[in-house]
Each structure stands twice: as structure tokens, then as C-alpha cells.
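Incident review: delayed structure delivery

Summary: a single-chain prediction request sat in the queue longer than the usual turnaround. Root cause was a stuck worker, restarted by the on-call engineer. No data loss occurred. The affected request and its eventual output are reproduced below so the record is complete for anyone auditing the incident later.

Affected input:
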Amino acid sequence: MQGRHAGVIIAVVLFSSGYLFVHLLGEVSRLYNDTSKLERVVAKLQLDNIEIAHRHLSAASYQDNTAQNDDDLILIYNRVPKTGSTSFAGIAYDLCKKNKYNVIHINITKNGHTLSLPDQVRFIANISEWTEKKPALYHGHLAYVEFSRFGLDKNPLYINIIRDPLDRLVSYYYFVRYGDDFRPSVRRRKAGNTETFDDCVAKDGSDCDPENLWLQIPFFCGHSAECWTPGNRWALEQAKFHLVNKYLLVGITEELGDFIAVLEATLPRFFHGAVELYNFGRKSHLRKTSNKVQPKPETLEKIQESQVWKLENEFYEFAVEQFHFIKHQTFDLTNGAYVEKGNRFHYEKIRPR
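Output delivered after worker restart:
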């Protein structure tokens, strides 16, 4: 009887052990499967992180390569007289050695603003093939030249600055009489003439004729005959088209520092350090006209009645609107200072993996 009970006990123990062993095997198998799943998830996350890191590295490499592979870049600054162009050109000259590019002045015979057709061909061939001087910033008082007209696939990058047209005319009026503080010893062509701008307008003098305002539109319009016909609305529309479609950036004299800031953010290859140089350098505010007298209200009213002023002012206001749009896309105003908004795009859903 005791042996029988002992057998039952042994059988129960063996059954329980077998059950526990099978159960443990099941748990181990389940844990192994869960661990494998977890490892696969972790591995996938690691791969994803590696892929993300490579994307970021690719973006950084692209930025670095952009800085290294733009040795053929050409900028043309077809500067309008009396718009702050000497100050801006001075900054370009101060930065060129540090940033490793060339600055070249375009000197046109007899202070002309247009080139003959053969000269346009030669000019385009020169700057396109002068590889020893690339990258380069060319500057001079030259009307817009359309490179594609001569068979090239694309234009160089154009930049420019314009100014309130009446302020520019008044500044030029006194400049040819009294010069400026940039080269005070130079005798200007109207030196000795002390007639004020108000007096000139009152007697309808030639030096203050509203047709003398007709300069900023032609510089942007180009080399067509209509571009240089004062008061020509076709020229205005052509100038607007070129400003939007052919120019990288057009700033305004009244916000020259902001123009330089946008350029540095956009083209650091050329303009890295330009803002600091403008704010703290000694050459940031060159060529201030001497003995300039602010016109009387009645003088301004008389000038503003002319068709030429109306079109030039329309172009100026159009340029201001475009520049403000670009500036506010580029910067946030934070605590009274402009801060670049930085990268506002990224890449995703890239296939195949």
C-alpha cells in the first residue's frame, strides 16, 4: 500500500516537472521571439538614425561644396551714380582678398552708360572667358546687358542699389558744384556755381530739369532705344521685369545696411564679414555730398508734377516693395535686431531607401 502511494506521488511529481519544463520552454521561446523583435526594432531605429545623420551630413556637405565649387561665379553690380555705390564697392574691395574673389571696375569712355553692339559682344566674351579672374565682382556705371541675347545660356548674377529719385537728383546737383568728402580736392565741372536747387527749379534751369531724373529706369531697362527716352512707360515696365526676373537682389540706399545683411546671408562666398565691416569699418559711409541744401516744399511740388518723376518714383516704390519682401523673408526682427531665419525647409519621404 505504501509502495502504491509512493508511485502515485512520484507520478505526480514527474507530471508536474514535465508540465513546468514545457511551460518554461514556451516562456523561453516567447521571450526569445520578443527579444528578436526588440532587436529588430532597435536595429531599424539605428538604421533610421544613421540615415537621418547621413541626410544632415549630405546637406552640410552640399553647403560646403557650394562654397568650394563656385569659382566660376560672376556678379555684376551695374551701379547707379549717387546711390551709395562707392560705399558698397569699398566693402567689396575690402573683402575680396579675405574671401578669395576678384573685384574689377568697368570704366566706360566719357562716362557713358551704354556700350555699342560690338562692345557688348567683347564685354560678354571677356568676362565669360577670363578664368584667371574668377570668381569676380564687376562694377561700373553700365546699363543692364542681356547675356542670353548673345547666345549664352544664362546671365551672371546682377545686383544693384537705387535711391529715392528726387533725393538722388538733388545730391547730384550739389555734387557737381561742391564735390564730396571722398575726394574733396577734386574740382567738379560746376565748381563756382552757387545757385541753389530751389533757384534752378524756379527759373526752369537745365541742371534741375526733371528729365535729369531719368537714370535709374534706363539702368535697369538696358540698351534698347526706348530705355533712354525720358518718360517712357515701356521702359518702366521693362525695368520692373528685369528687376524681378534678372537681378538676384536690388537694395535701396536708405537701407544700405539691410541690403548688405541680405547679401551676406545669401552669398557668404563673397560677402562673409560684410555686415561687421559696414557697421564698424571706416569705409562704410563714403562720399557724402558737400553743401547740400534741402529743397523747399514748393520746389518739390513742381518737380513732382512731371511725368518723368512719376515714373521714376513708381519704379523706386516698386523696388522698395520687392526689397522689403525679400528682407522680411530672410530675417526676423528680434529685440530690435534682424536675426536670420535659417533653414526653413527639409527633405523627407525619400525613396528608394
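Verification: Residues 34-68 have pLDDT under 50 and may be disordered.
Action items: add queue-age alerting; document worker restart procedure.
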